[in-house]
Design brief:
By secondary structure, this protein is α+β, with helices and mostly antiparallel strands. The protein is built from twelve helices and 25 strands. Helix 9 runs parallel beside helix 10.
């Protein structure tokens, strides 16, 4: 009977943790903590038996000595099943030249860098990125862990990783969203942070350069969007000790500041990894790793931490289906393909969904032809998973980023106007009514204009309730969504508190009015002169005729 109770508890914990949980052995309930060697061995055997009965694997995380004996922590994780794996999305942010793409190349391909950009070349998507060594687009790469916490990715020097093979062997897949560090690509970075819905942020800091440029911008963006951040300090092999010490002091100071209110924890051993990973979702702890991509120093600690990261967002299975589109493709032989994230519910192949809104706010019925997750064909996609859909009988030109696929039951409507409570993080002058800037919310990226404000003017640090109107197209937005409002160096963040689906599209004039020729002053004067000349000539002729007749009469 006690065995059945333990089995039920373990099943529930695995369900809550989406396929994994950390189980502690030796914690006393009203009695002192700790077990002797024999009792610990018996408890381990019982837990192993429980895990096997529900098709899960057991791996020891750490053991610690207490007064009465030992306390152990085990990771229980479900074995990989075909077409299903847990996905954790990590956004990689930080200043340019901090080593973001290099670290991802080392993690995902299993080979150390040579110090001259060898590892990062495997991640770049464009020719100009290869030439300059700077990421300009949103890149993706994956790191797979099996049920025992072993990395599935195999080192392959000649070709890119086989995503299908990795996903089919993995219980958990970490998706790295490689974002741009350069200031001119900030809009791409914001789109990656809002549109790709990362669970965590990995802030990269170059030990030799310190906290410069866009590092604070990206940290502020993560805090504004409520994404928990951990810090990775790179290039410690080439950095003098005094410079590294200065960088760490400044980093600790920023993380403890009133704006961040984080508890920095420098990870130096396996115990720190377990403590930081199990308490990380609280958003208060900020683990800091010091690594080298060339020597591989502390890389095993970072990999252990990634293995223990759990999915942060909880999703309900019974909700109405909703999928946000963040990219479109036209694949030869397949047709139109869209990629994005399933926000709610469950979507299966051959489901009929509504796609929109278009420029008039209407939704079009479409059929899902096939579904891929990380290049692996699947039959269904659940809430919180990113995937690609092939669509039937629709052209790529009809789809734009920011559109959604929703179930016909939800009766969706395109929204022109919405109300948001925003705080201005930075603005050089004042913001007033009719001010226009780019709004980012989810995968939506469109210019909006302020039509009313609860205050007359807003400056840096001010907070107000503003009503916005989209300039070009209506969008599908919902109350409670986070938004970022930017234009040049101006940045503001806020929450959407109310939408107005009844608001009409802005009047843009009649097409016939636009087709009329423009008023030309010279042409007008010339036409007037011609008319006057025509009118004058008959008068002169009649006058001469009357004069000649009078002369002949005399």
């Amino acid at each position: 009977e006690q065995y059945e109770q333990l089995l039920e508890i373990l099943k529930n914990r695995l369900g809550d943790g989406i396929g994994e949980c950390v189980y502690e052995v030796g914690i006393g309930d009203g009695i002192p903590d700790g077990l002797g060697d024999e009792d610990m061995a018996a408890s381990h055997a019982t837990l192993q038996s429980l895990a096997e009965s529900i098709n899960a694997d057991l791996s020891l995380l750490r053991e610690k000595q207490v007064e009465e004996g030992k306390v152990a922590e085990y990771l229980v994780r479900s074995k990989p099943t075909e077409e299903d794996f847990t996905e954790v999305r990590v956004a990689v942010i930080g200043n340019v030249d901090a080593g973001k793409s290099t670290l991802l190349g080392v993690l995902t391909h299993g080979e150390l860098d040579n110090g001259r950009g060898f590892a990062r070349t495997k991640l770049f998507r464009h020719k100009h990125e290869q030439e300059t060594g700077r990421t300009s687009s949103v890149g993706n790469d994956i790191l797979g862990f099996d049920s025992k916490g072993v990395i599935v990715n195999q080192a392959d020097a000649h070709s890119s990783q086989d995503w299908r093979k990795i996903c089919s062997q993995s219980s958990k897949v970490i998706t790295f969203i490689d974002l741009a560090g350069h200031e001119k690509y900030l809009k791409t970075t914001i789109f990656g942070m809002t549109g790709h819905l990362p669970d965590f942020g990995m802030l990269m800091v170059g030990a030799n350069a310190g906290i410069i440029g866009m590092t604070k911008e990206h940290l502020g963006l993560s805090l504004a969007l409520g994404v928990p951040v951990y810090v990775v300090v790179t290039k410690i092999d080439m950095c003098p000790p005094n410079v590294l010490e200065e960088t760490m002091k400044l980093l600790m100071k920023i993380l403890k500041s009133p704006g961040c209110r984080k508890i920095p924890l420098l990870v130096s051993n396996q115990d720190d990894v377990v403590v930081s990973a199990t308490n990380f979702t609280s958003e208060r702890i900020c683990p800091i790793f010091q690594i080298s991509n060339v020597t591989g120093q502390n890389m095993d600690l970072l990999k252990s931490f990634l293995n223990l990261l759990s999915v942060r967002n909880s999703y309900k299975e019974g909700d109405i289906a909703e999928f946000q589109i963040d990219d479109t493709y036209s694949v030869p032989g397949v047709g139109t393909v869209i990629s994005g994230t399933c926000m709610r519910g469950l979507i299966r192949t051959n489901d009929i969904l509504l796609m929109g809104p278009d420029s008039l706010g209407n939704f079009k019925q479409i059929v899902v032809k096939s579904i891929h997750r990380k290049r692996l064909p699947v039959k269904e996609v659940r809430a919180g998973q990113s995937s690609s859909f092939a669509l039937k009988k629709i052209k790529r030109g009809e789809i734009r980023k920011g559109m959604v696929l929703v179930s016909p039951q939800s009766e969706p409507k395109g929204v022109w106007e919405f109300e948001s409570e925003i705080r201005v993080l930075h603005h050089p002058t004042t913001i007033s009514v009719k001010y226009q800037a780019m709004v980012h919310t989810g995968s939506i990226r469109q210019t909006a204009s302020i039509i009313t404000m609860s205050v007359q003017h807003m400056r840096t640090g001010d907070k107000a309730i503003c009503r916005f109107r989209f300039i070009k197209n209506p969008e599908y937005i919902k109350e409670g969504a986070r938004m970022v409002f930017r234009e040049g160096r101006t940045k503001a963040v806020g929450n959407i508190i109310k939408v107005f689906p009844e608001a009409q599209a802005p009047y843009r004039g009649n097409k016939r009015d636009k087709m009329k020729p423009k008023y030309n002053a010279r042409r007008r004067i010339k036409s007037l002169n011609d008319r006057d000349r025509v009118d004058v000539e008959p008068v002169l002729i009649s006058a001469t005729l009357s004069n000649t007749s009078a002369d002949s009469g005399t």
